[in-house]
Design a protein that fits this description.
The complex is a heterodimer of chains A (about 270) and B (about 425). By secondary structure, chain A is an alpha/beta fold. Chain A has a single domain, classed as TIM Barrel. Chain A contains 12 helices and 9 strands. In chain A, about 65% of the residues are buried. In chain B, α11 links the parallel β9 and β10. The chains are: A alpha/beta (about 270), B alpha/beta (about 425).
Chain lengths: ~270, ~425
C-alpha cells in the first residue's frame, strides 16, 4: 500500500473523490509557489502535483507554458522541486511530482526516484513517457518503492489500457479529452468511458484531469472517478493576479470551491 | 567497386525504432495510437507496388526527378582543386529536398483517410513543400512557424499562404523551429482524429526518423549511380545537418561503401566555443527531446538550450537519432561550420558558378572547401545542395552589406571575384 492508495481509499471511505491540485514550482517565484502549494493543502487539496518546469512542455496549454517559462527565466532548479515536495508532505497532503522525462533522465533516474522519496514524495506522473518507453524508469521507481502514474487517453486501445494499468501504481491518470492542459467550458468528453475502460483493465484508482476548472466540473467527475485533477484553473489564480497575496487568496477560494465539488456540493 | 556487403551487415535503411541507443518513441499516450496507425500504414505502403509507383510518378512528373549532378570546377579551385560535384536538390519543385518527404507523407495521409495536415517549419522550405502537397492532394493545411523565423523568412510565409495554407506564428519560447515543433505536437494531440503530422526531418518519435530517411533516400540512390557514371564513388559525401533529413538521405545508399567518408556539417553559429550555435553533435549530450533519444543542446538539468544559426533551417537544438548513432559508431563525421564560413561559401558558389545556394546548404559547401584543401586535387567530393538561395537573398544581401545604403556606393560588390 502506498501513501497515494491510502489517501484515495480514505476519500472513498468518506464517500467522495479526492481533490488533486497541480502547480508548477517557481512561479511567480520559488517561495511563493511553495506557499501556494501549502495554501492548497489548507484549503482542501488531498494530493498535490508538483511540477518541475521544463523548457518544452508539449502537453501543456498556454497558461501553464507561460508560468513555467517565467519560472525557468527566474532560475528555478530541480532542487526547488524537492523542497516543494517536503513542504507539501509537512502540510499533510500527499505529494506527487509531475515531470517531463528529460529533466528526470538528466538528473539520473535512480537518483531522481531516491530524491523524490527522500523528500517525502509518494509518486511521479510522467506526461510524456508511456510504460513501454519507460521500463528503466519503472524499475528505478520500484527499487525505491515509489508510485509510477501513467496517463491514458480516449485514444488508448484496450491492449495499451492493460499495459498502462499494470505499470501504474497509486492511480491511473485519465484524460477525458484529446488535447493539452487548459480550461474547457464542459468536461463531459469521454471521461467516464476512459475511466471504465481503465478499471476493466485492472486499475484500482483512476483520477481524471485536463479541462477541469469549476466546482461543478469536479462534482460531475467525482461521480465516476476516484480523484479530480485540476491544474490550469489553479495556475490562473496566480497568473491573473499581479499581487502575490491576491493570487494566494484567489487560489484558496478556487480550491475550496473544487473541494466542495468533489464532495458533491457544487 | 563493391555493390555493398550482405544485407545482414548492411547499415542501410535501418528500420528503427532504435538506432543503437538512440531513437525510440517518448511521447504522450494520446499520440501513441496515431503513431501506431502511421507505422502500420507505412509498413503496408512500403511493400505495396502501387504506392511505390505513385511516388515514382510524382517524383518524375511533379518534383522533376532525378535531380541532376553538376560539376563545379571554378568553385573547386577554392577547395584545394578537388573535384567537386553538387547533387542538385535545389532544382526540385519548391526549391529543396523537402518535397521528397512531403509527397510520401501526404500520400500516406490519404491512405489513412485523414483530411488535414499540420507541419512545423524553420526556414519555411518544409512548410512550403507541405503546403504544396496539400494543395495538390486537396488536404487542409496548417503550418507552425516560429515568429522569429516568420520575420527572417517572410517570403516563404507569403508562399505558403498563396498555396492556401494557414501559417500560425509561434510566439512561445525561442520563437524558432523547436517551438514550432512543440506547437505542432499540441495541435496533433488535440486533432489527431482528423489530422496527420507531416514531420519535416529525420527526427521525432518512431516511425518518423526511419520513414523520413526512406523518403529522402532517393538523393543518395540517384547520386551513387550518377557518381559511378562519372567515373567512380566519391571520396566523401557532405550535407548540412539541422534535424538531418537531407544528410541522412544523402548518406544512406553510401553507408556500406566503406571508402566513402560521410560528413554532416552542423551550424556552429558564432562558434562552438560560444553559447550561440546549433552544433548538436559537437556540443550536445544525449537526452530526450521531441519524442526521441538523441543528442541535445541542454543544460545540466535537462532544459533545452536556445540554439543559434544564421540559417533558420539548421537552427535546432536537437538532431535525428540515426545521425547520433552514425556519429557514435564512427561511420559519419560531423563538422561544425560557423555562420561566417557558410556565408563565405555562399558568396563563392554564387560568384564562381552562378548558383545561389540556400544558407543551410552553404554549410555543406563550406565543409567541402575545408575537406578539399585537406585532400587536394586527387579527391572527388559530392556535396548535396539541399536547397536554393532565393529565400535567403535579403538576408545574404544584409550580411554582405549590399542593400542600398543611400550614398550610392557599391563597395561590397567590388571585392575579389572567385
Amino acid at each position: 500500500m502506498s501513501a497515494l492508495t491510502d489517501r484515495l481509499d480514505a476519500c472513498r471511505a468518506e464517500g467522495r473523490a479526492a481533490l488533486v491540485g497541480y502547480l508548477p514550482v517557481g512561479y511567480p517565484d520559488v517561495d511563493t509557489s511553495i506557499r501556494a502549494m501549502v495554501a492548497m493543502v489548507e484549503a482542501g487539496a488531498d494530493i498535490v502535483e508538483i511540477g518541475p518546469p521544463y523548457s518544452d512542455p508539449v502537453l501543456d496549454g498556454s497558461v501553464i507554458q507561460l508560468a513555467v517559462a517565467r519560472a525557468l527565466e527566474a532560475g528555478v532548479r530541480m532542487a526547488d522541486t524537492f523542497k516543494a515536495v517536503r513542504a507539501v508532505a509537512d502540510a499533510g497532503a500527499v505529494p506527487v511530482v509531475m515531470s517531463y522525462f528529460n529533466p528526470m533522465l538528466q538528473h539520473g533516474l535512480d537518483q531522481f526516484a531516491a530524491d523524490v522519496v527522500q523528500s517525502g514524495g509518494a509518486g511521479v506522473i510522467t506526461p510524456d513517457l508511456t510504460p513501454d518507453a519507460g521500463e528503466d524508469w519503472v524499475a528505478a521507481a520500484r527499487a525505491h518503492d515509489l508510485d509510477t502514474i501513467f496517463l491514458v487517453a480516449p485514444s488508448t486501445t484496450r491492449e495499451r489500457m492493460h499495459l498502462t494499468a499494470q505499470a501504474s501504481r497509486g492511480f491511473v491518470y485519465a484524460t477525458p479529452l484529446m488535447g493539452v492542459t487548459g480550461e474547457r467550458a464542459a468536461v463531459g468528453g469521454a471521461g467516464e468511458r476512459v475511466v471504465n475502460e481503465a478499471r476493466e483493465a485492472g486499475a484500482v484508482n483512476v483520477c481524471v484531469g485536463v479541462g477541469v476548472s469549476t466546482g461543478e466540473h469536479a462534482a460531475q467527475i467525482a461521480k465516476y472517478a476516484d480523484g479530480v485533477i485540476v491544474g490550469t484553473a489553479l495556475v490562473r489564480c496566480l497568473t491573473d493576479n499581479e499581487d502575490k497575496e491576491a493570487g494566494l487568496n484567489a487560489l484558496r477560494l478556487k480550491v475550496a470551491e473544487l473541494a466542495a465539488g468533489v464532495r458533491g456540493n457544487a | 567497386m563493391t555493390e555493398g556487403p550482405s544485407a545482414a551487415s548492411s547499415l542501410q535503411s535501418a528500420p528503427g525504432p532504435f538506432f543503437g541507443e538512440f531513437g525510440g518513441r517518448f511521447v504522450p499516450e494520446a499520440l501513441v495510437a496515431a503513431l501506431d496507425e502511421l507505422t502500420d500504414v507505412y509498413d503496408k505502403a512500403r511493400v505495396d507496388p502501387s504506392f511505390e509507383a505513385e511516388l515514382i510518378r510524382l517524383a518524375r512528373d511533379y518534383t522533376g526527378r532525378p535531380s541532376i549532378v553538376t560539376e563545379v570546377p571554378r568553385f573547386a579551385k577554392h577547395a584545394g582543386g578537388a573535384r567537386v560535384v553538387l547533387k542538385r536538390e535545389d532544382l526540385n519543385h519548391t526549391g529543396s529536398h523537402k518535397i521528397n518527404n512531403v509527397l510520401g507523407q501526404a500520400l500516406l495521409t490519404k491512405r489513412i483517410g485523414k483530411t488535414r495536415v499540420i507541419a512545423e517549419t524553420g526556414a519555411g522550405q518544409h512548410g512550403v513543400a507541405t503546403a504544396t502537397a496539400a494543395a495538390l492532394m486537396d488536404l487542409e493545411c496548417v503550418i507552425y512557424m516560429g515568429e522569429e523565423d516568420t520575420e527572417r523568412q517572410a517570403l516563404n510565409v507569403a508562399r505558403m499562404r498563396l498555396l492556401g495554407a494557414e501559417v500560425i506564428p509561434v510566439t512561445t519560447g525561442t520563437r524558432t523551429l523547436r517551438d514550432a515543433i512543440n506547437e505542432a505536437f499540441r495541435d496533433w494531440v488535440a486533432n489527431v482524429e482528423t489530422t496527420n503530422y507531416v514531420f519535416g526531418t529525420a527526427a521525432g518519435p518512431h516511425p518518423f526518423p526511419a520513414m523520413v530517411r526512406d523518403f529522402q533516400r532517393v538523393i543518395s540512390v540517384e547520386a551513387r549511380e550518377q557518381m559511378l557514371a562519372l567515373g567512380g564513388l566519391p571520396d566523401a559525401v557532405l550535407a548540412c545537418v539541422g534535424g538531418g533529413s537531407n544528410a541522412i538521405g544523402s548518406f544512406d545508399a553510401f553507408l556500406d561503401d566503406a571508402g566513402v567518408r560521410l560528413i554532416g556539417c552542423e551550424a556552429a553559429g558564432d562558434g562552438v566555443d560560444t553559447d550561440r550555435h546549433a552544433a548538436t553533435l559537437t556540443g550536445g549530450r544525449p537526452g530526450v527531446l521531441h519524442g526521441s533519444r538523441s543528442y541535445i543542446l541542454q543544460d545540466k538539468e535537462g532544459q533545452t538550450m536556445p540554439s543559434h544559426s544564421i540559417s533558420a533551417g539548421l537552427d535546432y537544438p536537437g538532431v535525428g537519432p540515426e545521425h547520433a548513432w552514425l556519429a557514435d559508431i564512427g561511420r559519419a563525421e560531423y563538422w561544425p561550420v560557423t555562420d561566417a564560413e557558410a556565408m563565405e561559401a555562399f558568396r563563392l558558389l554564387s560568384r564562381t558558378e552562378g548558383i545561389l545556394p540556400a544558407i543551410e546548404s552553404s554549410h555543406a559547401l563550406a565543409g567541402a572547401i575545408k575537406l578539399g584543401k585537406e585532400l587536394g586535387p586527387e579527391a572527388t567530393i559530392l556535396v548535396t545542395l539541399s536547397g536554393r538561395g532565393d529565400k535567403d537573398v535579403e538576408q545574404a544581401a544584409q550580411w554582405f552589406d549590399m542593400l542600398p545604403s543611400g550614398d550610392g556606393s557599391d563597395a561590397a560588390t567590388s571585392g575579389e571575384r572567385g
